[in-house]
Structure formats: structure tokens, C-alpha cells
Amino acid sequence: xTDDKRIFIDTSVMLHAAVPQSIRHGLCRAFMDSLEESxxxxxxxxxxxxxxLVQLMHPRTFTEPYxxxxxxxxxxxxxxxxxxxxxxxxxxxxxxVNQFEVRGKQVxxxxxxxxxxxxxxxxxxxxxAVDFRRYEPVIEVVEVV
Length: 145
What we know:
Rossmann fold; 6 helices; 5 strands; 5-stranded parallel β-sheet; globular
């Protein structure tokens, strides 16, 4: 599979694509379906999986958060159908933190970019493009709006 067919999906898209009661479900699910139909190879990281579990069970995300059992029931088959990448080596993250002057919680998104680059992926799909714009010298940012 060539790099241009591999695409990294951020938690902001994965979460809404997976949860039918989300107001953004239709938009994110349709986008994910279009990627699959165009023969893209969808990748996420172990960090995205963890972030998704946190959001599913968080009362600020859903008025009726998922129970742990329901969150696992939803995510297990979803993640089984995707390529799950392991996080980047620390050296890659540290180089990006230095290069892009990353501070505070921005390190989480920087780690996603480091993971992408360490696996040779250069395109991310997100609902939070502003969080990734600084990395456009090294990745392409596709926003789902």
C-alpha cells in the first residue's frame, strides 16, 4: 500500500463516526465511508483509541455517557477493522516539540503527528484543523466540517 492511500483519522472524527446519537454522526460517517470507497487505508493510533474511550465515558461529551462495557462493545469491532499504529518513538516526538515550539496540552496532538510520521503517513483527517495547522510543513490536514 502506498503512503498516499494511508490516512490517519483523529479522535474528533472517529468518535462522531462511531456514535449514532452524535449530531455530527452523519457527516463523519459519510466521510469515513467515502474514504473506504476510495480504497484508502484508514489508520489510527493507540492514543486515538484511548482518547475515544475517555470521550465515550465522559459526562461533558455525552449527557448519558457510555458505561465501560458499552464503550468496549462499541469500540472493539471498530478498532478491529482498522490499522492501529503504536505511538512514535520518543525521539521523534521530542524533535517535533522542539521544531514547532509545542507547549502544554499541544503535546497530545504533536504525538499524533509524530506517530503518523514515524509510520510514513502524511495526511490527517480531523474536525479540529486549527490544532494541526502548525504541522502543515510536514503533513496535510483535511478538515471534516
